[in-house]
From TrEMBL:
InterPro entries: Sortase (IPR005754), Sortase_dom-sf (IPR023365). Keywords: Hydrolase, Membrane, Transmembrane, Transmembrane helix. It holds the Pfam family Sortase. CDD domains: Sortase (cd00004). This is Sortase family protein. GO terms for molecular function: hydrolase activity. It comes from the Bacteria.
Amino acid sequence: MSNRFKLILAVRFFGYFLFFAGVISIFVMLGPLVQAETSYRMDRILKVKRTVPKMITSSEQQGNLASENGGPVDFTNVEASEGSIIPVSTEYGIVIEKINANAKVVANVNPGNEREYSRALTQGVAEALGSTPPGKPGNLYLFSHSTDAPWNIVRLNAVFYLLKELEKGDRVIIFKNDRRYDYIVFDKSIVKPDDVSYLTNAYNYPVLTLQTCDPPGTLLNRLIIRAKLVSS
């Protein structure tokens, strides 16, 4: 085998290696977003309406506060059916039925500490340090935003990738300590990254604020969704 042939073979091998490595890297980076987008579009085409099963509690049976209004919930023995969403966490979690978002919420995360929130976003969605507890007057601020590297900016925003599809009147459900809190979207805004007013806003009624990157996977802007509590 001549040296020239060996060189050609090595160059080709290296080229193929780079190509397949690039394809795999793109798949790993964009996979969660492609999956979320495909699932959402198929639901729209097939007219699948995803909902969290309504739990019947002892208090509801007695005519008191229903589980939809903050009563205790337990999904332990509930079997998932077509279109149903079983929360991944009722200890502290978020479900957005319209976009089939379902994630754990990591509490008390400093949005100014990149290392801290990058670690939190590998587990789910982050609650900004100083947020008001669910159901209480004030600002409950949840985010999934830019992080340490481009490939993580995309992957760690996957949970909130479809926030752009939310409109006024859509429902966002928060679970905390096995209780359910329903919020209804009333505002949708795109702001600059240095606009922290939505984080520092004070309210005399319960408000849920959701934040992610816009466009997804970039550092250009922030997409802000605000919702009001409709249960008591």
